[in-house]
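ESCALATION

Customer reports they have been waiting on this structure for their group meeting. Please prioritize. Original submission:
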Amino acid sequence: MTTTMPSSDNVLRTDYQKSVAAYWNAEKDPVNIRLGEVDGFFHHHYGIGDYDPSVLQGPEEAREARIIEELHRLESAQAQVLIDHLGDIRPEDRIQDTGSGRGGTSFMANQRFGCYVDGVSISQQQVDFSNEQARDRGVDDKVRFHFRNMLDTGFETGSMRASWNNESTMYVDLYELFSEHARLLRYGGRYVTITGCYNDVTGGRSKAVSRIDEHYTCNVHPRSAYFKAMAANNLVPISVVDLTADTIPYWELRAQSSVATGVEDPFLTAYKEGSFHYLLIAADKV
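Update from on-call: job pushed to the front of the queue and completed.
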């Protein structure tokens, strides 16, 4: 693995990137922290699947703990679905978690495949947290996190068997992003993203989608932009899964929890009105 240590000026190249990094460096949102404390896998993405309605019943004093555990089960299920689409990964292979957050999906992928994982984030706080987790887990010889820009990671061309973005594509230009993934992937390598995207048919960002952008300081892309940018960078979709209906229960449960952040209503409105989709796209490098 390369050991070059890029400077902050090289990683954070625009005022927007600096503002995004500042947001995540300061972030201590309970919806990310408390859920991760359930089993030590800290995620920065949403969940899929029906929730168990019994968590809303039973003794009131334990209700919140049941909801937290169930929300975490749903977000871990989402990560498992992404990992399911990475293809045939061997222990000697190297894969990349692009926009790696606090490392949850990276550790799950290593746990399943026994492979090398490089996580990339522009948040030094996330990188430090994740590397400490790797040391605590005893996997720091195979799972490492780097303060790098996902548009220019500095890793060797053709060095990755697979790579992914889990809800992080809305912070960057898709053509630049997929160009870097195509450079990193070997021929036949697999790229996977799970992302929210707005529906081209509705003619632009709805009010609900604009509120999501504002909340996360991001820029949600139209659905069509993903396929155009992939085609321009020799990434050929092999699987497209609409997870919109599968993610709505997560948001309905989260809205009833103590870790709600206020963005639940925009997500539910956007999904239910059809202006926003939650997609998994898996593509092969050709």
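Sent to customer with the following note: The first strand starts at residue 94 and ends at 98.
Escalation resolved.
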